[in-house]
Please model this.
Amino acid sequence: MRKKFYITTPIYYVNDNPHIGHAYTTLACDVLARFKRLDEHDVMFLTGTDEHGQKVQMAAEKAGISPKDFTNKVSKKFESLARKMGFSNDCFIRTTEARHYESCQKIWQRLMDRGNITLSSYSGWYSVRDEAFFAENELVNGVAPTGAPVEWVEEPSYFFNLSKWQQPLLDFYEKHPDFVAPKSRFNEIKRFVEGGLNDLSISRTTFDWGVPVPNDQEHVMYVWLDALTNYITATNWCDMEENQFDKWWPADLHMVGKDILRFHAVYWPAFLMAAELPMPKRVFAHGWWTNEGQKISKSLGNVINPIALIEEYGLDQIRYFMMREVPFGRDGDFSKAALINRINSDLANDFGNLSQRVLSLIYKNLDGKIPSIPEEPQKEDRDLLNKLKEFPNKVRALINEQSFHEALRIIWDVIAESNRYIDKQAPWSLKKTDLNRMSEVLGILVEVIRCVSLLTQPFMPDASDKLLDQIKVSPEERLFSSLTDINSLSGRIIEKPEGVFPRYLKLKDA
Ligand code: MSP
Model:
């Protein structure tokens, strides 16, 4: 039976336009979703928008339109970013959908029926920017630990008995050592829970842009309880006919930024335990980008617009850079020099030149006919062929632990080795002295291009497709199960090759 894989991005606040941070989280999920599909899993890849709460309501007021019209407008921009980045999400959820109201109310009712919610009143600090409550002793110089301003809130509120779930959470973490990654982040989460948990306010009464609390129209649900529930809504949990909860839930991976890990690794599992629903398998927290060494912020005016980047540098180039440049899980810096270096060195020189050289030699000297690999390989041939056999499993293992940068490094090691091989064998000279040997060398190198392009599909779908088209790999031969079909291209006829990784040449101040 085929395995299933359910992967989610955070849903994005629609108070603002999409930026590089949003594109990054979804890109990582897209790579993983594509990888799993090529590895023959049934995949559900979910993204969407988080449309309730004070922050969004205030942004709508500022824009002078109703929250509904405002969220319709901004949500479209996130959908359009997903199309422009080539994201392959199966579903785009909006928290203003009727099915989402139903599932939030169902979760609420389950929490209520099991005695986990009580009505009381909240007095304390609230940060609208973080949409989070803070106790006095959590503030740092009068603001939230994130630097966001806080306001004093006093209002009737329903509370979730989070404190009761401290020990069950710690027991769960103990039993599931891979629940949160990277490890250092998991340790932070454990320390936070060990320090004790306060009951959590889960409703608001001072504004109304949210999901109404069942049987109490004065309250709307706290936006994080509402938002986290989206992961279950998307399975059509409340739909009698289209219900796919049993097929997809629990999620295999919630991908989040480090800033929202606590909501996903503490609150969400506690809500689920309390509602007696299965726990997600894993939460991965990635790091944050800075821009040329500076924190990215609207006030500094250095927000990076992903669409402008794609237009300037190319989509696959940006996708490759973001996944290769920074060890996934760590913070990283976005610098144009580093980006141009990756484009010109890794893509144009290393991979681009290799494929262009090999395919041109076949086109010019062998009438375009792809040669076979040698029947009696020499030592250097065997070394490279063995590498081709081994590296896919290494790449798979690294992808399964979300080490995207390492997976790419392993792929580029094979490219580097192939470049050394081609320089040493010098097939361009062999054409005059030993045509047969030239064919053998090129036969091996076409295999390199095939295997590498198959594995780069999740990272750079367009460029990989173009290369696979050029070496006449049919669409049915592009799953990872074909990686072992060595020599399958022999005899196919290629057309005049075209480079797929142009160098980035910007004429200064032209
Ligand atoms: N709405 C909540 C998530 C609810 S999920 C149930 C939210 N939305 S957000 O729009 O503010 O941010 C979403 C994601 O963008 C987070 O994962 C965050 O880490 C990421 N990023 C925002 N700025 C970023 C960078 N500068 N760099 C990398 N990612 C960053 O939080």
